[in-house]
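Please fill in the sequence for the structure shown.

STRUCTURE ENCODING:
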């Protein structure tokens, strides 16, 4: 279909687009899974099959809790899948992890779509989540490691847009198939439909390039060079390709051995500092309150705003569509304004929306203002989604892959993604109970949380736009305190321009000079130890330097291992 040769015969921009498309498809599947259940919870044929979670006719806290557990069980599975990725992500590689995750999701989808009992439905959701946890822990890393520095943010934003596209599609399918009531096809088909994108992932993922960084980490240097060459559409001996390869190889050599305990130790690369930043950016995304809307939009419109079931499903679908359209803003602004500004300004809009939602729901509960508070509430559910889509939809998936060094990137991303899913589980679990117990105050809680998040972003998270992943390593190596990364990033010169052009040759950077000097010092020590009969130390020193000769350290074409920017 794409022509002969490796990677479907694609190179350069077309190959990058193919990687982005398949990564985006995985995130569309992720979004679809998040949204599909929301439009089914009030569907008559669905609640007839699973009366234990019918909160339309039974408003007790017990039923709300069971509904929360049933819906959030998917997130619990995602959490476990993300944890598993910590231990096997670097063993299998990026593509095979995505393949495995998609395969497991198909099994879970079949169980859900064929369910006749709540137990089977929950089991299917847990299994689907388990596969999705593996995939979502891996896709941002794979996409970041196969993207150029000036396009990395935009590529991951496109993937984030696909999340909202999947959510919107799930809402519209829920609405379309609701007309098949009272047949159970009205809910079985929307759940089963997720098998389609999962099969497409299985068909294409293994033919696309593996992460060059992972290839170098595993000693497959020729393959890494080939991938770098294909992604840049340049000959393997081109200066830009060789520079990227040298930069990556040096980083890999410095980080060639690690244990899981390195996630929790500081060291000169400030591992723990970076893991904490990666972990909490995912936590912040979830405790912002987005998933009380994503999972329960139709329920909110029907049960708490007072609209009929059909109108609620239409509005939920429209809300998802608007969410999808708003996410395009981030694609065109992520590099221009940077990660920090988008998150900060989005937070302002999210706080304002939550405050207004709290006020309007208070008025509705007190029967003040007739239907007008409900109308305003509906509008600001849309506004909140728009604000979130610009700054918080995709960036929390991008930053962990950017902030964490290659040495611990796979396990650290698994850990940060597990944070996303366990807090997602918490929000989805408590939302029905919170609305049932404290009503409008639920929105106040999320407003306060979003106010707290803003200064944390401002003081602790450095700007990473237009930086290679190796440059970000340098920023943290130069950082001496938890507050220092923002300032260091602000004053550190960029090696690459806004169009990916080389501004500072890696051979001339202080990082390269320092590494060469360290290698030279190591060889001098090795010579002295050889003269005293200690050959074992010599071998260890040469291995650390990256080879058996000076040439292997200085020449990227003779033994240097690298990772793509």
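FILLED IN BY: designer on duty
SEQUENCE:
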């Amino acid at each position: 279909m794409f022509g002969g040769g490796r990677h479907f015969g694609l190179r350069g921009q077309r190959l990058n687009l193919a990687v982005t498309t398949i990564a985006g498809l995985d995130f569309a599947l992720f979004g679809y899974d998040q949204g599909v259940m929301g439009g089914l919870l009030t569907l008559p044929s669905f609640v007839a099959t699973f009366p234990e979670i019918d909160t339309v006719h039974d408003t007790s806290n017990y039923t709300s809790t069971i509904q929360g557990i049933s819906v959030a069980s998917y997130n619990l599975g995602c959490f476990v899948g993300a944890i598993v990725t910590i231990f096997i992500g670097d063993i299998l590689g990026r593509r095979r992890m995505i393949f495995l995750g998609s395969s497991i999701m198909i099994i879970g989808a079949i169980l859900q779509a064929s369910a006749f009992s709540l137990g089977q439905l929950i089991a299917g959701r847990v299994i689907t989540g388990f596969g999705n946890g593996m995939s979502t822990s891996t896709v941002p890393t794979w996409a970041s490691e196969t993207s150029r520095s000036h396009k990395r943010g935009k590529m991951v934003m496109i993937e984030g847009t696909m999340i909202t596209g999947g959510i919107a599609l799930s809402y519209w399918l829920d609405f379309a198939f609701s007309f098949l009531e009272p047949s159970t096809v009205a809910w079985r088909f929307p759940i089963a439909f997720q098998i389609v994108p999962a099969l497409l992932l299985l068909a294409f993922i293994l033919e696309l390039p593996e992460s060059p960084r992972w290839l170098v980490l595993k000693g497959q240097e020729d393959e890494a060079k080939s991938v770098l060459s294909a992604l840049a559409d340049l000959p393997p001996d081109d200066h830009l390709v060789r520079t990227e390869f040298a930069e990556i190889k040096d980083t890999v050599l410095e980080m060639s051995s690690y244990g899981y305990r390195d996630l929790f130790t500081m060291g000169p690369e400030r591992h723990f500092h970076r893991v904490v930043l990666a972990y909490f950016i995912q936590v912040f995304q979830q405790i912002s309150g987005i998933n009380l809307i994503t999972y329960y939009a139709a329920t909110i419109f029907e049960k708490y705003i007072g609209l009929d079931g059909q109108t609620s499903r239409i509005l939920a679908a429209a809300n998802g569509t608007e969410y999808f359209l708003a996410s395009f803003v981030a694609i065109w602004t992520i590099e221009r304004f940077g990660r920090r500004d988008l998150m900060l300004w989005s937070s302002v809009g999210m706080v304002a929306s939550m405050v207004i939602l709290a006020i309007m729901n208070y008025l509705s509960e007190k029967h003040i203002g007739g239907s007008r508070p409900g109308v305003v509430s509906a509008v600001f559910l849309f506004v909140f989604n728009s604000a979130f889509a610009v700054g918080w939809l995709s960036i929390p998936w991008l930053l962990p892959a950017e902030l964490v060094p290659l040495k611990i990137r796979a396990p650290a991303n698994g850990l940060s993604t597990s944070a996303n899913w366990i807090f997602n589980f918490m929000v989805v679990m408590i939302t029905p109970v919170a609305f049932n117990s404290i009503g409008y105050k639920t929105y106040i809680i999320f407003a306060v949380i979003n106010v707290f998040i803003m200064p944390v972003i401002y003081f602790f998270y450095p700007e990473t736009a237009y930086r290679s992943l190796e440059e970000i390593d340098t920023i943290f190596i130069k950082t001496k305190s938890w507050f220092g990364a923002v300032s260091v990033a602000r004053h550190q010169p960029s090696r690459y321009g806004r169009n990916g052009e080389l501004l500072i040759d890696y051979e001339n950077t202080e990082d390269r000079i320092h590494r060469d000097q360290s290698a030279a010092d190591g060889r001098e020590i090795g010579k002295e130890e050889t003269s005293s009969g200690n050959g074992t130390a010599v071998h260890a020193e040469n291995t650390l330097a990256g080879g058996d000769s000076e040439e292997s350290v200085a020449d990227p074409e003779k033994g240097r291992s690298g990772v793509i920017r």
